[in-house]
Automatic annotation (TrEMBL):
Position of the signal peptide: none
Keyword Transferase applies: no
InterPro entries for this protein: LMW_PTPase, Ptyr_pPase, Ptyr_pPase_sf, Tyr_phospatase_low_mol_wt
One Pfam match: LMWPc
Ranges for domain Phosphotyrosine protein phosphatase I: 2-191
Keywords: Hydrolase, Protein phosphatase
The protein's name in its UniProt record: Low molecular weight phosphatase family protein
Family per similarity comment: Belongs to the low molecular weight phosphotyrosine protein phosphatase family.
Amino acid sequence: MVKILTVCTGNICRSPYAERYLQDGLDAVAPGRFEVRSAGTQALVGHPMDRRSAELLAEVGGSAEGFASRQLDERLLAGADFALALTTVHRDAIVARSPRMLKRAFTVREFARVLRAVAASDAGSLPRGSAPDDVEARWKALPKLASLRRHAARAAEPGGDDVVDPYRESSAVYARMVDEMLPALRDIVAFERAAARG
């Protein structure tokens, strides 16, 4: 099973949205092959998903039911194949806590660009197909390929890797959060869908 951890600050707005969207999307492509969880660098431990984030998640068919925020720790990182941060600050915090994540920690937006670059340049190097062994082999090969493509897939503008924090902000900021994050989440699911087709 491929384990992905999404990370923001409080683990009630951005990373839960990313967690639930990715879990649903990847389950639709490869049922039971992915486990997506989330955590916060300063988590509001045990809190449910923020109401407005949950409403926006529901608009794309997701559910916040049963969610409870978690604190990021070494145990969670030790079990993760990839950690997807919502800002570069979160990404740096992940690597500081677990140096083994250096080639496995990306921002969500960065990871989507890297996967597009890998698909364009290295598709022949990746195992393809939807069988459990194919999925496992593909995601085991990704850290090396992703690290090679990371530089070429840099954001075009400063701040282009970050997703705005909407906590205690207006509805417009929540909408901006989705606008900044959702295309990247869709691209991550699309990468796996294309690779699974073989």
